[in-house]
Amino acid sequence: RRRRSPVAPLALSTILGFLLFCTLLKWQLWGNRLLLPFYILNAPVVGSSLAALSSPLTAYGYAVFSRVRVAIIGLLTTIALLYSFIPLYTFLMALQPPIGLDSVWGNARLALYFRGAGPLLATPYHAVVQQAAVHHCATIGLNVGSNDWEYPLWVLMASFLSTPRIKHVQVNNLSRFLPEEFPNHQLCGIFKIRGIASEYSQP
Description:
The chain is α/β, with parallel strands linked by helices. The protein has 8 helices and 4 strands, in the order αααααααβαβββ. The chain has helices at 8-24, 31-34, 36-41, 43-52, 59-84, 109-112, 122-134, 151-160, and strands spanning 139-144, 165-168, 189-194, 197-201. A 4-stranded mixed β-sheet has the order 2-1-3-4, with helices on one face. It is elongated.
């Protein structure tokens, strides 16, 4: 009797989930990060498929499929290593020496947060955080636009100040009815971010 694969329901559910995702959600700039759960959930499916290559019926088949499995794993590993040395946000076909000078291995961690679409944000973001650090202000109100970056501020705050706290202020959407993280009277500073126009002020 043929044994049913234990990852078959997982594979089916992720496929259906992906189809629902494409059907219900409109295209958006941030769609790629929303697909990350599908990639992670399919990891067991890929691993199970590779493991299945090592269980043929004959010794000859076992040797052949083992070589295929090793070749696939080696190819994926090589691609991953090569891609990690490619200059950031450069297509694979555009790879040119020197390798690694502008890759994830050749940049400071803080600098990587501002790569891609946000290199112009590094200076103003550092400026407002440094102003807050001068005033020893670790409890910040965040006034941002609908497409302004928030997470680099968390990273910068943590590098300059201990136990930073950030909450959104002057919120106009439905989330304004949610319970507050902490009361406004505890705020010691406000970051107003509008693209590259960033400023720090005290309430």
